[in-house]
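DM from R.C. (forwarded with permission)

"hey, sorry to bug you on a friday — could you get me a structure for this? deadline for the figure draft is monday and I only need the backbone to look sensible"
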Amino acid sequence: MVEKLQPMSDTFKNIYLPILWMMFIVFTNASLQAQSFGDELQSVKTENNLIGLAVGVRCGNSELATFYGGWSDVDSGIPIDENTMYRVASISKSFTAAGLMILYDQGLFQLDDDISEALGYEVRNPAFPDVLITYRMLLSHQSSLQDGGGYGSFLSATYQNDPTPDIQEVLLENGAYFTPNMWRTEMPGTYFAYSNLNYGLIGTLIEALSGERFDEFMSTHLLEPLNINGGYNVSELNDIESLAVLYRDNIPQADDYGGVAPDPFVSEDYIPGTNGSLFAPQGGLRCTLEDLLDFAHMLSNQGNFEGTQLLSAEAVEAILNTEWDYDGTNGDNYFGLFNRWGLGIHHSGANGTNDRVVSNEILMGHPGEAYGLISDLYFHSENGYTIAFVTNGYASGGGYSFGEETIYYLPEEQTFSLAEDFFWDACSTLRVDVKPPQKFCEGLNYNMQSNELIVPENFLGSRLEVYSPEGKVLKKDRLTSNRYHLSEESPFTIIHISGKESTCRLKAVNLF
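My reply, with the result:
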């Protein structure tokens, strides 16, 4: 039963009216900022001759602004909107890495295990036959594999031949698609070299470990729990008309299905664990802008999404930890874009500013580029600031202009800068103050990303009351554990906690 405060009581006048006024100002400012942000993004779209543009900015799981403009399918006259799915290119790698780490949580491998054990044959760099190739190396692009001369023909055969070739045909020296430059000359584990083949091999390992087809495993264990209707298999998408066509110079390059789903491309004879590259784990995920934002929120929320633990906090920590730092000689930093790397995650803004998304800050995520599309998903692991950017191509001009201050293309750089100007400060100052500052209140804290109270031992058994922005009591409860989840009460304005020693009040500040 919802209880109401007495109208115009001293408590209401002295506490809640000022807070409600503050909330009105904050929400009004956010609305005006989002409108101005949208106007600026429309200019970015026009200036860069973009076919379509989608941008989203969040603070934790609170949406600050979204923008959708242009065309998903020019010939059919279908506009970009919140339901538009995109082939998000290499952002797919971060999802694939998360999929593999689900199996890590199940205890099916350790990061420094030899991948040969799961595959059933020995995989080695011929120049270093005694050095194991491990899961950690693949995830962090330090395996010494690269997209050598045989990779293109192997990938074409993967998509076109029936039966699908086994991935060992490009990995092993006696393979039909092997060329000597499939392996680098540096010792595995010592040198960073970005490679799509690493993630085709990870897709194969997911199949070998799980016994499931890569696309089906990802849908069941990651995408569906994230409420993502897309996937790595176009023939099984629910709504093919929502899939954006990708363009260069106004000419379709990919995903131009004219509203008709393609025939299934997987042979009934396909054996999981032989060649997961068939489903493009390196770049073939189709999903919406909102799906990208949800995935980032899951990672910044220690693997939890809407109360479901998809990845353990340990697995997320492993994903986000630094696995490789560029020192000028220990890797190919991809023209200055990649200077630090985790497991399937790029650390932007590390070791310099050329690859920054936000000034003087390190954000986690991944960029993507393929068939005219460019995409980005980056988030701050502490304050939850997240930005997602997707364009499905350009109408004219022969390509994208390079950024003026960063390694990113100009429309990316402009969008990152605008989002920082409009929203970074608001997200950085989102906090909960504890008042009054008494000894009893020490240690009480609020985790913005997980929307949880952190409860010290001396609070256990205390009474909790949660109030809405309208001054209504949303919930009364007792604190019985060290973490108390508040998802159903958000957005709250005030929380009262009453114990034997004293009372603490948590007040939301700049809560969007």
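R.C.: lifesaver. Residues 10-47 form the longest helix (38 residues).
me: no worries. Residues 48-426 form a domain with the Beta-lactamase fold (CATH 3.40.710.10).
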